[in-house]
Amino acid sequence: MSALLAVHDLEVSYGAIAALHGISLDVAKGEIVTLIGANGAGKTTTLRSISGLLKPRAGTVTFNDKNITGVKPHVITAMGISHVPEGRGIFANLTVSDNLELGAYLRKDKVQQSEYDRIFTLFPVLKERMKQNAGTLSGGEQQMLAISRALMGKPTVLLLDEPSLGLAPQMVQTIFRVIREINAEGTTILLVEQNAHMALMTAHRGYVMETGRITLADETKALLASDRIKKAYLGG
Predict the structure, then answer these.
(1) What is the pLDDT of residues 45-86, one digit of tens each?
(2) Is 148 helix (H, G, I), strand (E, B) or coil?
(3) CA-wise closest residue to 207 among 32, 39, 82
(4) Which of 14, 69, 124, 230 has most Cβ atoms within 10 angstroms of its Cβ?
(5) Closest by CA position to 12, among listed 152, 210, 213, 226
(6) Residues 6+ apart with CB under 8 A from 89
(7) What is the DSSP letter of 100?
(8) pLDDT of 173-218, one tens digit each?
(9) Is residue 59 within 8 Å of residue 97, measured between CB atoms?
């Protein structure tokens, strides 16, 4: 079975500084796969390369057996990969409703009411906030909106970059519960997350990144049981 999303020998540089040193990873249909590692390991760079925001120096990104390396971001989004960036990237001066509409901008079909209902089931608070400017929402609500906006594009694959960053523990639990629900409904997820314990508890498989290289890859059960991972990322 071929991977739905695959990265092969990817190299990315920022000027003279190499950020990714030939990394390879794959995500099968229906999986949650997580990338964990310290700050600066190359996790965000990997997601930005997949979604077309960065052009790799070498290597390939394939999606649905198509080579999408270096393809423009809006084309990749239209193909079915939605990226929720670190820091959320919502339009703060637009309403919640406008942000959701923009999420569906590249679609050829009409948005159904059932899609809004799905968002309001996942995040009931957004229903009450529809006319509010997105910049007035709490951090947790902004993260809910960022994920919801991405879902309005009807993605096959969702790229999530640090969804729990800066959120209160209770909100982190909510976000991860929703990530599991979105996946159970059929969306494949590639998750970058500082909270290694939550990420490994949620995902099916994990890759460990260190200074632009993948140093370990396994099912999350095995990674959670690994002394090396416990010591480096799980505080034990």
Answers:
(1) 999 999 999 999 999 999 999 999 999 999 999 999 999 998
(2) helix
(3) 32
(4) 69
(5) 213
(6) 146
(7) H
(8) 999 999 999 999 999 999 999 899 999 999 999 999 999 999 999 9
(9) no
Please, which residues bridge with residue 158 across strands? 82, 189
**pLDDT tens-digit profile of 116-170?**
999 999 999 999 999 999 999 998 999 999 999 999 989 999 999 999 998 989 9
pTM: 0.92
Residues composing the chain: 236
Q: Which two tokens stand for residue 133?
A: 């400017």
Whether 188 contacts 29, CB under 8 Å? yes
Mean pLDDT of 96-117: 86
**Ramachandran angles phi, psi of 225, nearest 5°:** -90, -10
- In the chain the first and final C-alpha atoms are separated, in Å, by 37
Report which DSSP code applies to 136. Answer: G
**In sequence order, which residues have a C-beta less than 8 Å from that of residue 224 and are 6 or more positions away?**
197, 200, 201, 230, 234
**Cα–Cα distance for residue pair 81/39, rounded to 1 Å:** 24
| Residues spanned by the domain of 165 | 5-233
Gap between the Cα atoms of 94 and 50, Å rounded: 27
Q: How many domains does the chain have?
A: 1
| Spatial separation of the C-alpha atoms in residues 46 and 213, rounded to whole Å | 11
